[in-house]
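Onboarding guide, step 5: your first structure request.
Type a short instruction followed by the sequence, for example:

Predict the 3D structure of this protein.
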Amino acid sequence: MARTFQVSFKINGALDGSLQAALQAAANAMRGLGNAARQASAAAQASKSGLAGMAAGLNQLQQAAAKFRELKKALAETQRGMAEAQTNADKMARKFREDSKAVERLRSDLKAYKNIRNQKEGDLNAARENLAYLRRQRGELYAQAKAFGSNGKKIPRELLGTRQGEQLAQVLKQLSANTQAIDEARTKFRAARDDVNLFAQKVREAERALKSQEQAARQSGRGFEDAKAKAQALKESLRQQQEALQRLRTALGSQGFSTSSFAASERQLAAE
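The system replies with structure tokens like these:
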């Protein structure tokens, strides 16, 4: 009986030791499986993150390519705008030069007209003074003829053949010459007056034309300055766009994106 109990105890002990070992091995296997699962999960997560990073990079590259295309289009538009602005500035410069030359011509004409008018006014004053002198002379001659009893036209009958008649004849002869000189002086006076009026009118017309042309020159001058400023601003904008385009070209080139064959690079990018 005692022997049977001892054998039974040994068997039971052996069974208990084997079971514990088996359980321990199973536990170790489960822990290994858990570690493997965690490692697999981490690897999957890393792979997922890598794919997400690649997708984000691809998206950024596509956006950069689109930006390059837009910037290149804007650059072309700015170049066209600058060319038009420069053409307009050149046109306004020519207009300003023409208006300025016209101003100088009109100033020269005005100066010439004023000089001629002043000369004509001098001629008019001289003609006026000469006419006034001849009229005073005629008054004196009439007075002398009247002193002889003449009306300034004929010698009284009673003075014919007398010394007084001879003196009166000289007075009447001078009076006749004076009358003719007055007629000529009056004609010259009127002509001089007409010339003065003519060139005074020319001076007024030249002054109005000069004033109008000066205003036109000021306007074309402002137009030229505005056009020049616009062209300069577009030139600066073009410079900045060119620099930005070059920076973007360099950035794309560093990622293997060729801007020299832009269409082919875009197709390749879309395929990826």
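Each response can be followed by summary notes, for example: The chain is about 90% helix and 0% strand.
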